[in-house]
Structures are given as C-alpha cells and as structure tokens.
C-alpha cells in the first residue's frame, strides 16, 4: 500500500443546512470505513477543505468521485502526496465547525482569512498550515 493524502478545496453548489451536512458526513464515514480512508473536513461559508488519507489508488478514485459530484463546484486538488503515517488514523471523517476568529488565530493564516479569502484560494503552504493546526488539536472540542 502506498499511503497517500489528498487535500482539496471546493465550493458547495448550494448552501448546506446542518441536517444536510450531517447526512453527508454520515454517508462519508460509512463509505470511508469500508475502504480504509481517514481524514478531516472543514466547511465554512459554502466552501469545503478536506484531507483524505489511505491507499493512493483508493484516495485518487475517491477524489475523482467527489470532483464529479454535483454538490461541488470548483473542486481544486491542492496536494496529492505520499505520507509516512496518517494524521487522522482514528477518524473515518472528522468534521469541525470553524469560525473566522479561530482561523484568524492561526499564525500564517491570519492575514489570509482577514482579507475575506476562502478555502478555494489556499495554496499548498497554507493548506498544510491549516491541516497541521487542526491535527495539533485546534477545534477538537467542536468536532461534530
């Protein structure tokens, strides 16, 4: 197995209600568990930031499915690379509600989000900064 993570951003085709987001998460968690994919998902202001971890072929196929899903627009693969270990090994799909204030408190991202930019505009460096901040324990108390 070639352990890989894929980090992508997308815009939702329409705003998700809390109920719709929960349904989406339940579906993802069930499907991901069956194919040994772990990861995390952030949703804010109609945009998604997601990390998927697993075998490269499985992760690539899952990304292609997501990219063709009509619930997403502007799907942008930010990073696809081999990793030594999973950052979210115990999660089939962790999810957090994140506020503008919490984003502004992350060194290296505070200026980016203060300018009103969205996940869709993250480059590789800022995507890794956000991923690491989440992995290190930010927002764990607000996981859904």
Please characterize this protein's 3D structure.
It is globular and about 35 Å long. It has one domain (3-142): Alpha-Beta Plaits, CATH 3.30.70.100. The longest helix has 17 residues, at 18-34. The protein is an alpha+beta fold. 25% of the residues are buried. The protein has a 5-stranded mixed sheet, sandwiched between helices. It has helices spanning 18-34, 56-67, 100-104, 110-114, 124-135; strands at residues 3-12, 38-44, 47-55, 72-82, 94-97.
Strand order of the largest sheet: 4-1-3-2-5
Helix content: 25-40%
CA-to-CA gap between the ends? 30 Å
In CATH, what is the class?
Alpha Beta
State the helix count. Answer: 5
The portion of residues forming beta strands comes to 25-35%
Strand runs, count: 5
What is the H/E order? EHEEHEEHHH
Class inferred from helices and paired strands: alpha+beta
CATH fold call: Alpha-Beta Plaits
């Amino acid at each position: 197995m070639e352990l890989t993570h894929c980090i992508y951003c997308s815009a939702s085709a329409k705003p998700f209600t809390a109920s719709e987001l929960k349904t989406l998460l339940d579906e993802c968690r069930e499907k991901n568990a069956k194919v040994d994919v772990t990861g995390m998902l952030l949703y804010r202001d109609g945009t998604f930031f997601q990390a998927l971890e697993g075998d490269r072929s499985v992760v690539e196929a899952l990304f292609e499915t997501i990219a063709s899903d009509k619930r997403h627009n502007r799907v942008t693969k930010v990073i696809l690379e081999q990793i030594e270990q999973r950052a979210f090994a115990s999660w089939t799909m962790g999810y957090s509600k994140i506020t503008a204030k919490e984003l502004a408190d992350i060194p290296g991202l505070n200026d980016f989000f203060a300018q009103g930019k969205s996940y869709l505009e993250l480059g590789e460096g800022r995507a890794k900064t956000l991923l690491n901040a989440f992995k290190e324990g930010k927002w764990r108390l607000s996981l859904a």
